[in-house]
């Protein structure tokens, strides 16, 4: 990889060692541009074009790329599928149609893991995508080490070119992503309430509920308090929310006192 390649990877947040996206006989420049955009979304930076119908470079591609221009600028153009994969150790072909060939068939998620394992061993890989109108030819598929098929509604499995690239690239990106499956987004001006703040809320609420008679049934009091504590703890309140709730309790208590006087 050249120094310029490394700068380009950093600029778009692309990942060195990702698989190459190989578009075999793509028909429309706009679709090539949208493919580049999908690749940039998922950190995949190497684009190879085999006999693009309208030639290359193509202004329509840049217009549709939404800023992923560096991927298009550095795209490699080949005159044959064989030439486009000559330096690769592993090649997978995407198809939604059954081919009369004995091939390993991967889902996009399984293919992503397979490609990442290969990359960890220094294997260069590529994934081939066919032309918009009819996909890959059998001759192209026969050059691959396996097939990727995306499980979809069996009555309608058609994906446009950029969608197909995005599905595979997204699964590849997810296979290496460490983002938690779920997290709590909190505004920067606050934070999660700590145990002392939550205890203060519980004590305040319990005291006012005792005063109003809500907890007057002795046999149920401990269970009711426990349920209220559990409810509030499960909410994962911020310290701002604790202060707001204590203000609400204080206001309701004051209103209740005025009503009784």
How would you explain this protein's 3D organization?
The protein has 2 domains: 3-175, SPOUT methyltransferase, trefoil knot domain (Alpha/beta knot), CATH 3.40.1280; 195-260, Helicase, Ruva Protein, domain 3, CATH 1.10.8. Helix content is 49%, strand content 10%. It has 11 helices and 7 strands. It has helices at 3-12, 29-41, 59-64, 69-73, 81-84, 108-120, 138-141, 161-175, 195-212, 218-234, 239-260, and strands at residues 20-24, 47-50, 76-78, 90-94, 105-106, 125-129, 146-148. A 7-stranded parallel sheet has the order 3-2-1-6-4-7-5. Strand 1 (20-24), helix 2 (29-41) and strand 2 form a beta-alpha-beta unit. Helix 2 packs parallel to helix 8, helix 6 packs across helix 8 (161-175) and helix 9 packs parallel to helix 11. It is elongated. The model has no long low-confidence stretch (mean pLDDT 90).
Q: What keyword list fits this structure?
A:
261 residues, alpha/beta, Helicase, Ruva Protein, domain 3, seven-stranded parallel beta sheet, 11 helices, 49% helix
């Amino acid at each position: 990889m050249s120094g310029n390649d490394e700068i380009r990877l950093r600029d778009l947040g692309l990942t060195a060692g990702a698989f190459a996206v190989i578009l075999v006989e793509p028909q429309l420049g706009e679709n090539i541009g949208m493919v580049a955009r999908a690749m940039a979304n998922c950190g995949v930076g190497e684009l190879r074009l085999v006999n693009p119908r309208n030639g290359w470079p193509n202004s329509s591609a840049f217009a549709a790329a939404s800023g992923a221009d560096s991927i298009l600028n550095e795209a490699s153009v080949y005159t044959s599928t064989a030439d486009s994969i000559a330096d690769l150790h592993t090649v997978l072909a995407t198809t939604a149609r059954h081919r009369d060939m004995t091939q390993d068939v991967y889902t996009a998620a399984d293919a992503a893991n397979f490609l990442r394992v290969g990359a960890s061993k220094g294997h260069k890989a590529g994934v081939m995508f066919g032309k918009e109108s009819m996909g890959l030819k059998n001759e192209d598929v026969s050059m691959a080490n396996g097939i990727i098929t995306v499980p979809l509604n069996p009555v309608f499995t058609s994906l446009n070119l950029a969608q197909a690239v995005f599905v595979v690239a997204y699964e590849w990106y997810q296979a290496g992503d460490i983002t938690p499956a779920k997290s709590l987004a909190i505004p920067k001006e606050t934070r999660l309430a700590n145990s002392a703040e939550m205890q203060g809320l519980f004590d305040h609420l319990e005291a006012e509920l005792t005063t109003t008679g809500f907890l007057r049934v002795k046999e149920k009091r401990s269970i009711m308090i426990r349920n209220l504590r559990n409810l509030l703890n499960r909410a994962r309140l911020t310290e701002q929310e604790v202060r707001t709730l204590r203000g609400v309790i204080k206001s309701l208590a004051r209103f209740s006192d005025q009503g009784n006087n």
